Amino acid sequence: MNCMLCSKLFQEYLDNTLSEELIHELNLHMEHCSRCRVFFRTYSLTVTLSRKVEQPCCPSEETMERLTALLCDKLCSLHGKRP
Ligand SMILES: [Zn+2]
Asked: How would you write the pLDDT of the chain (83 residues) with one tens digit per residue?
C-alpha cells in the first residue's frame, strides 16, 4: 500500500465497497502515514457534508433578480453611462 493507492481507495472505503483485506491494508497504512490520515479525515468530512446537503446550492429567484440588477448597474456604469 502506498499513498497514491491509499487515496484512490478512500471513495470505495466510504462507500463500503472495499474488501476486508483492503480495508485492513488501508488502516495499516494510515496508522503509519499521518498525511493519509489527515487527508482521509478531510475527505470523509467533505463527503459527509456534501451528502447532508439535500438541495444543490442554487440562489433563489429573488437573489438572482437582485444579482442581475446589480450586474446591469455595474455594466451600465462601465459602458455608456460614463461622463
Ligand atoms: Zn500515505
From this structure: 999 999 899 989 988 999 999 999 999 999 999 999 999 999 888 888 877 776 556 677 888 888 888 888 888 887 765 55
Residues 83 and 47: their CA atoms lie apart, in Å, by: 51
Instruction: Please choose, from the candidates 44, 7, 41, the residue with its C-alpha nearest in 3D space to the C-alpha of residue 26.
Output: 7
- CA 37 to centroid of ligand 1, rounded, Å: 7
Distance between Cα 74 and ligand 1 center (Å) = 49
Tell me the whole-structure pTM to 2 decimals: 0.58
Residue 8 CA to ligand 1 center (angstroms) comes to: 11
Q: How far is the CA of 50 from the centre of ligand 1 (A)?
A: 24
